[in-house]
Specification:
There is one protein chain. A hairpin with a 5-residue loop joins strand 5 (98-105) and strand 6 (111-116). Strands 1, 2, 3, 4, 5, 6 and 15 form a seven-stranded mixed beta sheet that branches. A six-stranded mixed beta sheet has the order 9-10-11-12-13-14, with helices on one face. By secondary structure, it is α/β, with parallel strands linked by helices. Helix content is 26%, strand content 27%. The chain has helices at 18-34, 54-58, 67-79, 163-167, 183-201, 250-259; strands at 5-11, 39-41, 82-84, 88-91, 98-105, 111-116, 122-125, 128-131, 144-146, 151-154, 174-179, 204-209, 225-227, 233-236, 242-248.
Length: 269
C-alpha cells in the first residue's frame, strides 16, 4: 500500500425480503461511493435475515450465477468500487445447508476473491439460541487478497474470536469483517475484540455490522467502525442503518510498525 484511500462500512437492519434488502444495499453503496469510498463493505446476511434457518437455504445460489450475485456485481460496477458483498448463501455439497460466503468484487463487477466462513457461531443463554452449523457448512480456506488498494485479510463475524486465523495471514494492511453480532455478545465483546485484532496485527480493521431490531425479532449490536493500527477508533456508527467512511493511511501503518515492530518480534508463528 503506497497511498491513502477511503473505505466505507455499510450498516443495515436487514429484513425477510431479499429484493427489499438488495435495493437498500444498493442505495447505501451508492451513498458510500458518493462520499469517495473506493472500498465498500456490506454486512453479514445483508440480503436476508430470515424467520428460520431454512430461509437462507431456500435462496441459495450456485457460485457464479443468480440474482444475489448479479446485484452485487452491478453495485460494484455501477459505482466503480471494490465491493465486499457481505455474505450470501451459496450451494454446498449438503443440500440442507449452504456456505456463508463473502465475495470480493472488483470495480468492473468481476469476482476477485471468495471466502467461505470458517468458524460457525453457537450460543445459548438469556432466552437465545443460535447454531449456525444447523444450516451452514464451514469453509476451510482463509483469504488474504492482494488488490491495487491494499493487502486485505478477511473474516466473517464469529471468526473475530479466533486470532490464530488472522495471525497466519500477517502481514496485511487491512482486515475486513462483515458481521451480524447479537446484541448480547456485541455489547460485551464486539469493540474490544476488533481493537485487539487491529493492535496485535498492526493493521486497519473495517467492520460492517447489522444494527438494530429485525423483522424476524432478532436484535443485532451494530457499531460498524473503522479502527487504526494503534487501536484508535477512526469512525463509527451506533444503531440503525447508515454508512461509516474513513481513510486508510499508509503513513500511519508504517509509523506504528516501525516504532513498535511487534510483528518482527514474534517468537511463535
Amino acid at each position: 500500500m503506497d497511498k491513502a484511500f477511503k473505505v466505507a462500512a455499510v450498516q443495515m437492519v436487514s429484513g425477510t425480503e431479499p429484493q427489499h434488502n438488495l435495493a437498500r444495499a444498493a442505495q447505501l453503496v451508492a451513498e458510500a461511493a458518493a462520499q469517495g469510498a473506493q472500498l465498500v463493505v456490506l454486512p453479514e446476511y445483508f440480503c436476508l435475515m430470515g424467520r428460520q434457518d431454512g430461509d437462507k437455504v431456500a435462496i441459495r445460489e450456485a457460485y457464479g450465477s443468480g440474482p444475489l450475485q448479479a446485484a452485487l456485481a452491478a453495485m460494484a460496477r455501477d459505482n466503480g468500487v471494490w465491493l465486499v458483498g457481505g455474505t450470501i448463501p451459496l450451494a454446498c455439497p449438503d443440500d440442507g445447508r449452504v456456505y456463508n460466503t463473502l465475495l470480493l468484487y472488483a470495480p468492473d463487477g468481476s469476482v476477485h476473491s471468495r471466502y467461505d466462513k470458517i468458524h460457525l457461531f453457537g450460543f445459548t443463554g438469556q432466552g437465545e439460541r443460535y447454531c449456525e452449523s444447523d444450516s451452514i457448512l464451514a469453509g476451510t480456506q482463509p483469504l488474504r487478497a492482494s488488490t491495487p488498494l491494499a493487502d486485505i485479510a478477511f473474516g466473517i463475524c464469529y471468526d473475530l474470536r479466533f486470532p490464530e486465523l488472522f495471525r497466519r495471514m500477517t502481514p496485511f494492511d487491512l482486515l475486513v469483517l462483515p458481521a451480524a453480532f447479537t446484541a448480547t455478545t456485541g455489547a460485551a465483546h464486539w469493540e474490544v475484540l476488533l481493537r485487539a485484532r487491529a493492535i496485535e496485527n498492526q493493521c486497519y480493521v473495517l467492520a460492517s455490522a447489522q444494527g438494530g431490531e429485525h423483522e424476524n425479532g432478532r436484535h443485532t449490536h451494530g457499531q460498524s467502525l473503522l479502527i487504526d493500527p494503534w487501536g484508535n477508533i477512526v469512525a463509527q456508527i451506533g444503531k440503525g442503518e447508515g454508512v461509516v467512511v474513513g481513510d486508510i493511511d499508509p503513513n500511519t501503518l508504517h509509523s506504528v510498525r516501525s516504532r513498535l515492530p511487534a510483528l518482527d518480534h514474534r517468537v511463535f508463528s
